[in-house]
From TrEMBL:
Localization: Plastid, Chloroplast
Cofactors that this protein relies on: FAD
Organism encoding this protein: Chlamydomonas eustigma
Occurrences of domain FHA (ranges): 577-639
Keywords: Abscisic acid biosynthesis, Chloroplast, FAD, Flavoprotein, Membrane, Oxidoreductase, Plastid, Transit peptide, Transmembrane, Transmembrane helix
Keyword hit for Flavoprotein: yes
Protein name according to UniProt: Zeaxanthin epoxidase, chloroplastic
Biological process according to GO: abscisic acid biosynthetic process
Record flagged with keyword Lipid metabolism: no
Amino acid sequence: MMSRRHATYTSLRYSSYQPRTAQNCARASLTLTRVAVNLSLLDKTSPDLDNTTVMSLSQKPLKVLIAGAGIGGLVLAVALLKKGYEVQIFERDLTAIRGEGKYRGPIQIQSNALGALEAIDSEVAEEVMNLGCITGDRINGLCDGISGDWYVKFNTFHPAAERGIPITRVISRVSLQNVLAKAVIELGGPNTIMGNSHVVSYTNKWDPSPLKNSSSGPSAVSITLHDGRVYSGDVLVGADGIWSKIRRQMVGESEPHYSEYTCYTGISDFTPADIDVVGYRVFLGSKQYFVSSDVGEGKMQWYAFHKEAAGGSDVPGSRKARLLHLFGAWNDNVVDLIKATPEDDILRRDIYDRPPIFQWSDGRAVLLGDSAHAMQPNLGQGGCMAIEDAYELASILTDSLERVGGDSSKLDVRNAFRQYQERRMLRASAIHGMAGMAAFMASTYLAYLGDAMPGPFSLLSKLKIPHPGRVLGQVVMKLAMPGVLGWVLGGNMSNIERSRDAHCRIADQPKGFDQSLFPLFMKDDDAVIRASAADWLLITERTPGSAASVRDAHVDPFADVTSTSEVKGIMMSDTEAMIGRAGCHLMVEDANIAPLHARVWREAVTSTTKDSSIALQSFDYFVQDLGSSSGTWLNGRQMASGSRSRLRPGDKIEFGRSPSNEVYRVKLQHVSLRNEELSGHSFTTLAVGRKHTHMGDGALVVA
């Protein structure tokens, strides 16, 4: 086995696995279709098992009952079946596996969980990884919600690559459960997963024989289903989630803890401008935050969190409008995702977790995953912790059986469960706390001095003085995050090293840029912008239909205002674009505008890595006032006559007066969404995120 200290991306052996199809990570294929388990596989012989890890079948195999066919329960079943156990899963609702019923979006499977899954079954792990969209090969992190500026960037690539574990991915939850269920059925047979079987209680059973020492604990366990059916086994694993009946019986009745946040979620047909460089982001605001992630196939998944009382609801058809009310002043990376999502595809749920507990087992019953440590989704580690749990529980049970020669009747179940809890509780509790801290951070985040202050003090925010709390938090996070990420993604490596060799997969290398650019992107925010495959637009917007009678306005009066933008503007390029009256590239409707008032253009620029080994060729964009008597304003400040300024995404420009009826802003748009209908002379109603055909090439266009 390779030593961890030698596990660098350049020196590790690469896995021989190859992706099923050549795919660009940013456009990676994410299977969102509903795929049923192929029942023709049920008659196939189970794969050969490693004889060194399979329990001796000369002894009666340990019978394990699993309540719940979620991610944790299915992964545990695969691990146990691979080792020769008898497994029976009880699930009240199989629609999740079949992809029926309510929509279930993608889920993030991070490097630590993928490493554990590889240690359990490399073939299953490979199938999961091939179906996923890699996000950990790009820059990720926290941003300010209003401006979109980076607060803290995360490098999740190198902590995984240096340890020889797979890079974080996002995969359809239905596809993930389908892969796992298929593996369970291949290994255990068609009746291993029982549907319409809700476990409501359990009973520890003692051997009545006088020769049996009762102090060693119960000898078996039985479960009762909702319809009265009873089943018995040697061990019961409660993997039945945050509302676990097993947990309730074990530790007593308690209500889940409300996080104080409700969450809206959806998937948009939309491609952000910087998708080749950025995988996922968390946008911060006061008492609200927004998470977006690439999920492949030109789709983005997003979550909008807002602090409010539990149990709220929306008038049918009003969710998108409410979100635009809450987040409409935020940057384009937030607003465009909301606009590009159909109203019917937006879901809402309150976010709950449960406080850590110190009792994970009772006799022959034990908890796993959310039933033991349900956490908020802010770190994307809920399912990952369940996978780690499954690996540890299967390993400890097997080690304990090996010590008694594989004789399940001699297994010290209580001691095995105690080891499992000791190995998992501290790590799971720490990550549980980190997930809660993310929500707390959003509750207290303030960008500028004066934000959220009453009365005249709120005017301080116009001075754009960074809030001291934000500055201090930024310093602390930049110092702490490399260590935290290293521990979260690689902190379980010592436990799985005996079951897998460290290796890097060729398919995990960054697709959008050379990996040596990571240090540059982590340090230089401008380099991230410059590396984006984006068109730079200068546009002004107004509500669709608000000026339908205006001369030369090509407006659809029936357009959905929550899904469209009425836009006038230009795309900036090498050729300077003139701004002024009739005859200019961009015509501004204002009597104060000079015939040739201003110009915008771009200039080539080169960014290099610290060792100058790689040069990044790109452009910077500029605006210049052409000596107009009425002036040009950039972000509320008047430019000196004849001066020029470099532009950044989100900048606002006013020509002739401030405030102006036409406020222009700089917007970045991915080149695949280039829109030939954009005009500098009239307004056009354009859909956000919808697919159109133009110029005969079938490309996507978006406002």
